[in-house]
Amino acid sequence: MKVRVSITRKAGLSDPEGVETHRALHDLGYDEVGDVHFGRIITVEVAGKDAAEVQARVEEMCERLLANPVIEDYAVEVLG
Amino acid sequence: MKVRVSITRKAGLSDPEGVETHRALHDLGYDEVGDVHFGRIITVEVAGKDAAEVQARVEEMCERLLANPVIEDYAVEVLG
Amino acid sequence: MTEPVHRTLGMTDEEYESVVRVLDRTPEPAELAMYSVMWSEHCSYKSSRAWLGRFPTEAPWVVVGPGENAGVVDLGDGWLAALRIESHNHPSFVEPYQGAATGVGGILRDIFTMGARPIAVWDPIRFGSLDQPRNRYLLKGVVAGIAGYGNAVGVPTLGGEIEFADCYSGNPLVNVMALGILEREQLVLSAASGEGNVAVLLGAATGRDGIGGASILASASFDEGSGAKRPSVQIGDPFEEKKLIEACLELYERGLVVGIQDLGAAGISCATSECAANGGMGMDVDLDTVHLREHGMTPGEILMSESQERMLAIVRPEDVAEVLALAEKWEVDASSIGTVTPGGALRVFQDGALVAEVPAASLSEDAPRYERPRERPAWLDAVWADAPDVPDQVDVAGALRSLLDDPALGDRSWIYEQYDHQLFLNTVVGPGNDGSLLRIKGTEKGLAVSTDGDGLRCRLDPRRGGARIVWEAALNVAVTGARPYAVVDNLNFGNPEKPEVMWQFVEVVEGMSQACEALGVPVIGGNVSFYNETGGVDIHPTPVVGMLGFCDPMPPRAPRLDRAEEGMDVWLVGPEHLDDFAGSAFARVVLGNEGGRPHDADAEAGSTVIAHAIQLAGWSPVLHDVSAGGVAVALAEICIRSGVGAVVEAADWRELLCESPHRFLAVLPPEADPSDLSPIRRIATMGGAAIDFGRYGALPLTEATEIWRNALPRRLA
Amino acid sequence: MTIAVVVFPGTNCEHDVVHALGVLGVSADLAWHRETDLAGASGVVLPGGFAHGDYLRTGAIARFSPVMTEVARLAEAGCPVLGICNGFQILCEAGLLPGALVANRDLRFVCRPIHVRVESTDSVLTAAATVGDVLRIPLNSYEGNYVAPAADVAALEEAGRVMLRYCDPSGAVTDPANPNGSMNAIAGIANAAGNVAGLMPHPERASEEILGSTDGRVLLESFVAAATAIPAGR
Ligand SMILES: Nc1ncnc2c1ncn2[C@@H]1O[C@H](COP(=O)(O)OP(=O)(O)O)[C@@H](O)[C@H]1O
Ligand SMILES: [Mg+2]
After folding, report:
1. Tell me: the pLDDT tens digits for D18-31?
2. D234 belongs to a structural domain
3. Residue of C nearest to D114 (CA)
4. Is C587 helix (H, G, I), strand (E, B) or coil?
5. Residue D233 included in any domain
6. Which of B18, C231, C253, C400 is most open to solvent, judged by the fewest CB atoms within 10 Å of its CB?
């Protein structure tokens, strides 16, 4: 099964990459752009039949390795 | 409007983060894990009323700045 | 029953009463927040201040001693050097990458606050055993954080040190030291003089980072219950800092600042009150002008925010426009947030209303001072009695195999090759040797630096241990040809409310002070980190010394470990060994013993040996001090780095493995006769394909190299 | 003749490049990234560092700096343009060189001397060297891993535009000698005309004996010779 993990920095923490990219977009004339935030997507191919089980396993992977729970939130979607 | 841009490395080009994460997951005993791919998500707040127009503008931002078309693919979703 | 607010801010009832006395009324919330952080252990040194005065701090070349952001010494011809060390222990445990990264950012600001360009960083770090995954994660994260920030901000990391012991498992130590150079006219201090001068806040936006935060965290024990005190982690932005460095250096060059202060612990409240108090003035601060990252921040939050990469410059009113323009050129945000006033009051306004009014000086000067009880630990006698049981005869080659495989003794290049250590083209001797040696371009001058600590030996005897790390650091710079010139120290200790910990602290300060006095080297700055305990277990008393050495001129070709050649002689310089095994690597790694009482430093022998090292550095291909692992490991490092074996001809196995102080190896061409540099004796000849200890066995060089190179990587793979 | 060394916010090797050129007896001027006219320069160096923090993507934001329009103009006119490390990354992003640089194979920053073999002398980077020379030069990067679509790499090879390849001290191109996983062990390339070149290692860090190696000089000398040969700012 294909699983998509989206990892974003917790609200309130600074996001230097977002700030700089915001600045660059404005320099290019995209004045309509407001806040910019950076995150990561990790797509993982997982052997398994049961979506709920796969979901639980990948969430565990997030807690242990993929995300840094101290500063990041994550969301796991089993795409099937 | 809130727009999510997902940027992934083009198939066939090396993805060291993916490879390394795959290895680390197996070290932790997640033998069910197959291919792992890394990408970035950039969420952008964009002033605008028309979803199609916003979509087009953000696609232009991707072409010009947010993605590197030589090695990356991107997808733009207007979340509303 | 809810706890009174001051207690949730880490303040005792007595301390709260003092605040009431100082203000002569009940503090407003913003005021209480300010006092709670400024009077925390981290900011006020309330438990240590009474003892720090023991350090010798004077010498004719000291320009700025302890008390300012960094110590400054004179290098002649108008050149000055600034040096400073800090700890980021607790933040690095919470989030190793960002904790270490922001540690680097903070120490750099201390340097360029003085007007100096930061030119190098060091990272003395300590962890629990790498057998535990959590410790591997912490080490990797810390090294990546130092690399990620240091490399990107554009300041090379020229070395550090690393130790492993179980006591650091729940409490890793991450110390960072930075060196800067400047020309005398550029020196700036943090005093806000001149009524009507303007306080300009430069750099990153202010968010809710580390509110009630990093400093309180560093001032309390770390246990399960501390979750509530956990600050939101601060995220380092090396790019912002790089711009800030360039902008500030240009401000100084153009003479546009009267005084400047970095924003660290307690953020705006600390910077404004210190600047005002140092100048004998007051300040009016308007919080509406502070560039915020988040909506709805309270005055207390804005004042206490520990958002990174910010500076407060004091500027004459007529220069404000130019300062703002210069900031804009460097793409640094800047705004005028305050005005220097007569009278000594720090007054803070928001939405036109006065939200805090305190005597600026009271935040630092009225802070509590504690002379906490001290008591020699009862367990020490038993520890001394448990001296290493040294056998009659030892297979030195076999012991060397184990020693080279120890992660603290093996090759450290896994760490330092992640650090840019060459930027600025100053690095004449880089990491992987004893001290690093930097040139100052356009002069003949050289600066040598070493950081040294030794938690185990300091646990066994804090006074002797404290003295020995100073002597070791001094020898490390001397073998590059530099004379010991100034010291900064980072005192990492457990809970000062325990009498045993306070006793250790005072003993260490005494030992270090004696060594500095004997060396004639002033202490120009330092940092105290208390409350390094987890679950009631304190870390070893772990002072770390940063030694600055100076030479003018530099040796034409400074010694390095990789310059030994077949046929050269190896000389051991230094006094007869003392069978000193307590706290040695041999006892720990091979015998599994961590007891006994180490020998003391010997000031007379130490000084002689340092003078010899400086002299030999003028022409020796290799000099290497003998420290952890003794002569055997020191010789092996020379062999491995130079790619040539050695045959040891005359040495007792004890001489090879014990760790008596004040010894180094000199590898000299065969025709050289250094015998007038007594005490000195020839112990080996370079050559062959093994490190050959004669009747104590031989270790093939290829095998030694393999073991040494893999000691760290194989545990981290 | 003067050489312009371009400074973006976040660049950090600019003074080192100026110093190393000075060692060769050549003077160079710093040019801030907002400048739009480098007509006085007969050569341009984009030095190493972290332009715009390397945020978003290495080189991505820098390529839009005003100075890059001018760099492109000079490149087109045949002026020698050299990108070192971050400068190489920027030239790739700007499309003045093909491909891109991504994270090192083992995801660790690498700062150490590596060996490169000279593969071609048809560029401003290598003209003074000899094919087959092995140079020991410091590498200092996290994103030093050269990637490009297979067809582009094949075209580069075909046209002899790979200038430097990672190798072991004997000159053999082996996998362990490839410090970052670059495709075809590519360490440096040039454009078709040979006047625009980029490389990951830092020749300016190997230009004085006291710093451990002088192997980088031949590369800087090639560049300087090319800059001397053309009139300023065509
Ligand atoms: N954490 C570290 N970061 C960078 N370099 C380090 C680190 N630990 C050790 N090193 C380097 O490895 C070398 C050996 O370290 P060490 O054995 O502690 O030196 P010494 O015993 O001479 O004080 C030194 O050059 C030192 O700078
Ligand atoms: Mg040493």
Report:
1. 999 999 999 999 99
2. no
3. C417
4. helix
5. no
6. C253
- The Cα C425–Cα C421 span in angstroms is 9
pLDDT digits (tens, 9 = 90+) for C422-478: 999 999 999 999 999 999 999 999 999 999 999 999 999 999 999 999 999 999 999
| Cβ atoms of residues C492 and C542 within 8 Å | yes
| Mean pLDDT lowest among A49-58, C26-35, C94-103, C412-421 | C26-35
Cis preceding linkage at C679, omega within 30: yes
Report cis status (omega within 30 of 0) of the bond before C553. Answer: yes
pLDDT in tens, C71-101: 999 999 999 999 999 999 999 998 999 999 9
Q: Give me the domain span that covers residue D178.
A: 2-228
Asked if C209 is an interface residue toward chain A (Cβ–Cβ < 8 A), one would say yes
**ipTM > 0.90 for the complex:** yes
Q: Could you give the number of structural domains in chain D?
A: 1
CA distance C294 to chain A (A): 7
DSSP string, chain A: -EEEEEEEEPTTS--HHHHHHHHHHHHTT-TTEEEEEEEEEEEEEE--S-HHHHHHHHHHHIIIIIS-TTTEEEEEEE--
D contact set with B (CB within 8 A): 56-57, 60-61, 64, 92-93, 98-100, 102-107, 145, 147-150, 181, 183
Judged against a pLDDT cut of 70, whether residue C5 lies above it is answered with yes
**Under a CB-based contact definition with an 8 Å cutoff, are residues C214 and C90 in contact?**
yes
Q: Count the domains in chain B.
A: 1
Question: pLDDT-based confidence at C211, cuts 50/70/90?
Answer: low
Most B-contacting residue of A3, A23, A44, A45 (CB-CB within 10 A), to test interface: A44
| Residue whose C-alpha is closest to residue D62's, from D109, D6, D23 | D6
Q: How far is D54 from chain A, CA to nearest CA, in Å?
A: 9
The CATH number that applies at residue A28 is 3.30.1280.10
- The three-state secondary structure class of C135 is helix
| Nearest-by-Cβ selection for A14 from C94, C95, C207 | C207
Beta-strand relationship, C282-286 and C345-350: parallel
Instruction: Report strand pairing: C483-492 vs C523-529.
Output: parallel
- Specify the range with the lowest mean pLDDT, choosing from C156-165, C200-209, C411-420: C200-209
Q: Ligand 1, from C85, C412, C427, C438: best to mutate by most atoms within 8 Å of Cβ? A: C412
> Do the beta carbons of residue C213 and residue C40 sit within 8 Å?
no
Q: For chain B, which chains pass the contact test of at least 3 CB pairs under 8 Å?
A: A, D
In this complex, how many residue pairs, one in chain A and one in chain B, have their CB atoms less than 8 Å apart?
94
Catalytic, out of D13, D79, D85, D167: D85
Q: What is the CATH number of the domain that holds D49?
A: 3.40.50.880
Rounded distance from Cα C693 to ligand 2 centre (Å): 22
Count Cα neighbours of A31 within 13 Å in the Cβ-side half-sphere: 1
SS (H, E, C) C92-122: HHHCHHHHHHHHHHHHHHHHHCCCCEEEEEE
D131 close to C (CB below 8 A): no
Contact between C483 and C73 under an 8 Å Cβ cutoff? The reply is no
- What is the per-residue pLDDT across D221-231, written as a single tens digit (0 to 9) for each? 999 999 998 76
Could you identify the atom of ligand 1 that is nearest to the CA of residue C628? 21
In B10-29, the residues whose Cβ lies within 8 Å of chain D are 10, 12-14, 16-17, 19-20
Q: Is C659's C-beta closer than 6 angstroms to any atom of ligand 1? A: no
Pick the closest to residue B70 from B28, B7, B3, B24 (CA basis): B7
Structural domain of A61: 2-78
The SS3 assignment for C553 reads coil
Q: What is the pLDDT of residue D39?
A: 87
Q: In D37-46, which positions are buried (b, 16+ CB within 10 angstroms) versus exposed (e)?
A: ebeebbbbbb
